[in-house]
Model the fold of this input.
Amino acid sequence: MTLTDEQRTEIRETANEVRRDVIRMVHAAGCGHPGGPLGMADFMSTLFLAHLKLTRSNLHAADRDRFILGNGHTCAGYYALLAQKGLIPRDELLRFRKLGSPLQGHPHRNAELGIDFSTGSLGNSLSVASGMALAAKLNGWSTRVYSTSSDGESQEGQIWEAATSAAHYGLANLTVIVDFNNIQIDGVMREVMNVRDLREKYAAFGWHAVDVDGHDIDAVDAALCAAAAETERPSAIIAETVIGKGVSFMENQSGWHGVAPNDEQAELALAELA
Ligand SMILES: Cc1ncc(C[n+]2csc(CCOP(=O)(O)OP(=O)(O)O)c2C)c(N)n1
Done:
């Protein structure tokens, strides 16, 4: 199924609003990670608006879809999308990373807000997502489990243990979207620790695996539809993205992995995202 013009417009507008929220939140907190969520905004908005079945009305249904943000440090965009879905009050967003707020610098599991798992310690996410997918399969539920990951997280050995077992158990209801921006905390991924071709790696582990332009919402949608049509293999979508996408001075800069913009930079960024 392809996106309608209406859906396409809504996803584009949402992605831009998510980017603006990310800048506002990280600026207000004075710390956090703006680069990753700016780069992920297009594929995350496509997933949250057109695929992930998570709403206030099915929030407590055991068999609803699940989402795990494997690269937990990119949570500002995740929280903004949960607010977009009416699961987090919008005024809570500006308390991001503040003492007492449920919106900490890495996701903390919260059944009321629809946050399905605590992440931040890189490497665990795909194992947890696989466990949820296996449980759903054993229960005969139509649940789909989505997880994000990143090129940096793919350096963790546990990801590949999970990849082995997800294929072994035939978890066709599991999809991972890897934010592949070639940047990580210490610089350029290919120089720090090259994970090489992740599509080939996942395919070699027995997954249905595709490369997509992570900013092309039609391509992302098509990849998510193909994943949903799989009946035997888990799916990996390797989404090539630009860290900091949408804010010229943040794009492709590892320095913006985890630094808050100052007042002037936040104003400039919001003007570019207007
Ligand atoms: C187990 C573990 N080791 C180290 C870290 C510290 N850390 C936080 S983010 C990060 C880089 C992750 O790379 P990636 O997700 O590709 O970064 P981005 O694209 O968001 O810049 C690291 C090493 C961590 N969170 N967990």
Notes: The first helix runs from residue 5 to 29.
